[in-house]
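Researcher: Here's a chain I'd like modeled. Treat it as a single chain, no partners, no ligands.
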Amino acid sequence: MKKQWFAVYILMVVCFAACQSNMKPTLDDANKEFIVLFTNDIHSQILPLEDNNMGGALRRKVVIDSIRDAHNNVLLVDAGDAVQGTAFFNIFKGEVEMMIMNELGYDIRTLGNHEFDNRMDGLKQMLLWNNRTTTIATNYSFSDSATASLIQKSTIIPIGDIKVGFVSANTNPNGIIDPTYRQGLSYTDPLELTDNEAQKLKQQGADIVIALSHLGLSDEDKRRYTVDTALINASQHIDLLIGGHTHTYLYTPFYTLNLDGDSIAILQAGKHGQYLGSAKIRLSANSSPTIEYSLIPLSSHLDSKIDSAFANKIDHYTQAVNKTMNKHIGTTLHPMTIGKPESPLGNWVCDALIIFAKQYMNTNVDFAIYNTHGIRYPLPQGNITLGHIYQSFPFDNNLSIIKLKGSEVISLFQTIALRGGEAVSNEVRLTIADGKATNITISTKAIDPTKTYTIAMPDYVANGGDQMEACLNASSRTDYPLTIRDMIIQHLEQLATQGKALPPSTSGRITIR
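Model: Modeled as a single isolated chain. Structure tokens:
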């Protein structure tokens, strides 16, 4: 049995930040309350992060168990992207993450875009593994009856005497989920649909309706799709939104007005499970309810309370991952960071695509691009392991070579400018001013709108991913069956045998004015 002092400590952390909300319960009994614990965008981070020792499923269970020990009415929810990002997912295809959701007792979850990364069959298998958790997707529908039977539009969960309704708002898959990975999925904009579903739950007796959203707090990538704030601004029946997708650390709630002029709280817990979100909600018949909200840090001070049986289950998978992923394959001279408008790792991988196009496909290309979202983690200085590469390049992208008319190339770079930059090879120079690309050159020459250019890229980009729709107008396309990740691994091993290390490079390929 856990010690009472620890349970009291956890409750003190939960109640650290008290924030007022204007939800409108319809309860007759006063002073009813419950706690919603939440995660979002864990991205298969099973163990604590290497760079700051934060997070980890074992620590998350410590806090969740302690709060449940101290409070009767506790719900645990997830706002999507529980998977993809470490070798655990690449090797076990979601089995580990779904085991963890079962063991921790998640009550309800929604789907992020990365839940589709193993295609529809993979999603179906994960839902079967995670059979203790209700999955909702209000604005997605599925033609595959086997998948559809595992996903609900919405639900009401009784917790004590309180009926808590849940709806979801799922991201627009266009340009973000490969069409071949989501066959049978139909999308409807959640702007009205989700609120209409919330209204139905109120009519069915829900005292409060919470939206689990994977839209993102704001449109930081200029996708021009519905985001959390727009959803709330157009709603009347959603009382609280727990979000994800943009990896935003909201240490205090973000408030925005709904159609009735009420302030509605939006919550989000960053990424990689470094924090557990907690919202204690008090409902009263005679006054507006309140939210006591905090992000609980999952740091090493929790390690003495780790559940040994659960740790053994995690260790079983960890040993299998380490057996493969601890292999040393190369060296870096300096940290290889990621980001926009350009970065050492982004620049390096684009230059590598030029080499790969020649080595594997015997093709000379004019330049290469790589979507920055496809590079998920920086490489540390020093020894690089197989695990580092899987963490940085988790997606099974293949190398595509397309031929694109110069006018379409200009359009492609305008999209890149709107997004604030993207990884490009050393042949490229451009300036971004006020969200527009200017002074674009390829190998020091201005782009000829009538010329055809040969470009190397991940197949995800060639499929129009990350709003690179201009690539869909290619006059020809050739794909190589080996993944880019495997090409990178072989390349690093070749460099290692030659005694060479990865050099960082930020050569002014993209300039922001």
